[in-house]
Amino acid sequence: MNLHTQPALVQERLYSRSPQTVCAARHFTRDTLKVWGRGSRRDDVLLCVSELATNALRYGVPRGRGYLLRLLTYDGTVRVEVHDSGPGMSRIEERTAGRGLLLVGALADAWGVLPRAPGKVVWCEFRGLGC
Prior knowledge:
Layout: E1 9-16, H1 21-36, H2 42-60, E2 66-74, E3 77-84, H3 100-107, E4 110-115, E5 120-126
Antiparallel strand pairs: 1-2, 2-3, 3-5, 4-5
Helix pairs in contact: 1-2, 2-3
């Protein structure tokens, strides 16, 4: 067990099912990264937030519902999570018009999808973003 691990800092915000929330999610992320002193790779993180929020709106948020953006930082890592209550699991579809998850996969150090009831959590991580 690593006794020097810092506890995670967490910020989260719930957004309605509206395209305007993508910009708001980006601003929330930018402001949070600034408070945390995690400016390195900021543009990559912001682009991934945009892509994950857009995917949630397009494919994962049923009418009358919203999505949760959760940001965590721990041990020099920033983790972005987008929680939605829609069916299915996100995956890269090279035949479709959208290339958002290809961008996330190229920019982030890791990404994935976790099930939740209902819906899923699509996440990505950026490592080595020390204070």
